[in-house]
Amino acid sequence: MNRRLMLSGALAAGALALAVPAFAALKVGAAAPDFTLPGFKNGAPITYSLAEARKKGPVVVYFFPAAFTGGCDLEAHLFAEAADDYAKAGASIIGVTAGSIDRLKEFSADNKRCSGKFPVAADKDAKVAKQWQSTLPTGISNRTSYVIAPDGKVLFVHSEMNPKQHVELTLSAVRQWKAGKK
Questions:
Q1: CA 23/CA 46 separation, integer angstroms
Q2: Which of 89, 108, 119, 164 lies 20 to 30 Å from 64, alpha-carbon distance?
Q3: Which domains does the chain have, with CATH numbers?
Q4: pLDDT band for position 99 (50/70/90)?
Q5: Contact 67, 113 (CB under 8 A)
Q6: What's the 3-state SS for the chain?
Q7: Res 101: pLDDT
Q8: Mean pLDDT, rounded, of the chain
């Protein structure tokens, strides 16, 4: 009986693995498509240009599914807590969502989320997320973080729905890039 349960469990796990799609993302070394999007920083409307941001140093572009949801709130909070560390390493942060943009103003200033530390942008119809190969089958942004070099090349990519390692891994990649520039 135990053997049957173990075999049944193994078959179910295998079927689940086949049912979960593998998500693509831009590869390290690829040219990151530039974009200009409307957004907010600390509640104030902005127009964000990746090309302009890259002139100042590397940029962490992180795609997130939707503001005011558990994983996205945690991820924004973690990026906000580390914003000064990114700045010390010469990098900036931009959060991009194809989720509902109605509350991005509030999300950008909320002390439990972005805390006004970095901008968040609205990617209507996931046009940018699609160019970056960072969408879910539902058409919204996948949780994918990139580090983009000033020359526009992808230095690092991490795509995982669990938000916990995005900050640690992207900050490490930024610091490695900076160390290689000395």
A1: 30
A2: 89
A3: 25-181 (3.40.30.10)
A4: confident
A5: yes
A6: CHHHHHHHHHHHHHHHHHHCCCCCCCCCCCECCCCEEEEEECCEEEEEEHHHHHCCCCEEEEECCCCCCHHHHHHHHHHHHHHHHHHHCCCEEEEEECCCCCCHHHHHHCCCCCCCCCCEEECHHHHHHHHCCCECCCCCECCEEEEECCCCEEEEEEECCCHHHHHHHHHHHHHHHHHHHC
A7: 79
A8: 87
Q: What is the pLDDT of residue 123?
A: 95
Under the banding of pLDDT at 50, 70 and 90, the label for residue 181 is confident
> How many whole angstroms from its chain centre is CA 166?
8
End-to-end alpha-carbon separation of the chain, Å? 63
Q: In this predicted model, what pLDDT tens digit does every residue of 18-63 receive, in sequence order?
A: 223 345 689 999 999 999 999 999 999 999 999 999 999 999 999 9
- How many Cα atoms occupy the beta-carbon half-sphere of 58 within 13 Å? 29
Q: Is residue 8's pLDDT more than 70?
A: no
Give the residue carrying structure tokens 């709130």: 73
17-48 as b/e: b if 16+ CB within 10 A? eeeeeebebbeeeeebeebebebbbeeeeeeb
